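Hallway conversation turned thread

IA: we were arguing at lunch whether anyone had actually written out Cytochrome d ubiquinol oxidase subunit II end to end. Turns out nobody had. So, for the record, here is the sequence (335 residues) and right after it the structure tokens. Reply here if something looks off.
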Amino acid sequence: MEYVVITFLCLGILLYFLLGGADFGAGIIELFTSAKNRGKTRKTMYQAIGPVWEANHMWLIIAIVILFVGFPHIYTTMSVYLHIPLLIMLIGIIARGTAFVFRHYDAVHDNMQEVYNKIFVYSSFITPLFLGIIAGSVISGHIDTQATDFVSAYIYSWLNWFSVSVGLFTVALCGFLAAIYLIGETKDEHDKKRFIKKAEFMNIAAVLFGAMVFIASFKENVPLADWVFKNPIGLSAVILASLSLILLWYLLLKGKTKILRVLAGFQVTMILLAISYAHFPNFIRLKGGDTISLFSAVGPEKTIYSLGLALLLGSVLILPFLGYLFYKFQQKEEE
């Protein structure tokens, strides 16, 4: 049952990045949109994420619950040594959701709408930034469980060039996903061209920040290059991600937008696979070279069995209805 729980954990993280990340990316796209086009972008974004954006946080909740119940040592280590970026990320999620609701459904339209807009776009940037910082921190080797002072234990564990570079790379990927998804949400040619330009901009940003991640990993002794290029699975994933990106832009130039979302999602999945496969099942790298593995940190057998059973039953009950929600929403768009 361990493998069932670990599979759900990995799927939860992946789906949160692909779906929740695209939602964050919509706010990032709005942030980098001119004032005259912001209204159109906002309207398209409402159509794209309005009815389903809350469901995307389900994947984050599932991942957190799995870590809390099934891997308490990993959960404790992250929540203690990374409590500052975790708190900022959670505040960003709350602020973004609140601003999204009030700027759209507030009964009174006044100057506060501009405040809601700013909260929404800036929290859309900050939240994936710190999500990426957390992801970078758990593999950076900067978490020092033997630290005796506050700064070493709770600041340097995440405030380093590698983690920040991963955070910026995450922001660029979220913006890229959103731009690609939004291309298929509009029939206006002018808007499509705008979103294509945003996708190009975010693609370039992702390449630059990706290069920054590798430079920072070299400077801070994170064996990222070995994980990616000296492992056949990692190398294959990188090649497939590159080929899917080339195909994506080819189809985009041909005006074929239906499969773009699948290709963008596939590309990001391959990037995550390339980074994570080589050091699996190690979940956290600690300062000094020690690691915390999913198998070594697993909870009691009865707990894992109950958790795995609950996840299996829950997926049977929830996933079909979630799929139906997306299906009905897509039908509404086509009408």
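OS: looked through it. The two ends are 44 Å apart (CA to CA).
IA: good, adding that to the notes. The longest helix spans residues 301-334.
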